Amino acid sequence: MAPEGTTVDPLFEESQVAPSVSAEEAPEFFEKHGFFYQTDSEIGRLVTRLDNDGVAGGPGSLTSFKEALLTNPRVRKILESYDEHPALWFSLGCDPGHYFASTIDPTLI
Question: How much is the pLDDT for 88?
C-alpha cells in the first residue's frame, strides 16, 4: 500500500507491469521507462538450479532462460529487438523481500 498522500501509477503493480500493457506496447513501455518486470516462478527455479550448480554467471547461462522467457508474449516482444548474442550475461534470482531489475537507462545505473 502506498503512503498516504502519494500517487500510485496504475501501470506499476507489485509483482509486474500492469497486464493492461499489451505485448505490442511492451517494447515502447521498456523504452520509455527503462525497465520491465514480471514475477516468473520458472525463471526463479532456473536461477536457483544454475546457482546451485555454480554456473549462474557463466557463459551460456542466459541461454537456459531463453525458452521460458520467450513463452511470455510481452517479454518476447521486448527481446525480439535485441541482439541474440549479448556480450554481457548475468542472472538475477529469487531473493524474498528484495527486488531486482534490468534497465537500459544509463542514468539509473
Answer: 52
CA–CA separation, 73 and 26 (whole Å) = 9
Of 75, 11, 7, 78, give the one whose Cα is nearest residue 42: 75
Which amino acid appears at position 106 of this protein? Answer: P
Instruction: Give the residue carrying C-alpha cell 544454475.
Output: 50
Radius of gyration from C-alpha coordinates of the chain: 15
pTM: 0.63
Copy the grid coordinates of residue 31. Answer: 523504452
CA angle centred on 69, ends 67 and 75, rounded to 5°: 145
pLDDT digits (tens, 9 = 90+) for 29-43: 999 999 999 999 998
Nearest to residue 89, comparing CAs of 67, 63, 109? Answer: 63
Answer yes or no: are the C-beta atoms of 38 and 75 closer than 8 Å: yes
Write down the pLDDT at residue 33.
93
CB atoms within 10 A of CB 9: 9
Residue 88 region by backbone torsions, left for phi larger than 0, else alpha for psi between -120 and 50, else beta: beta
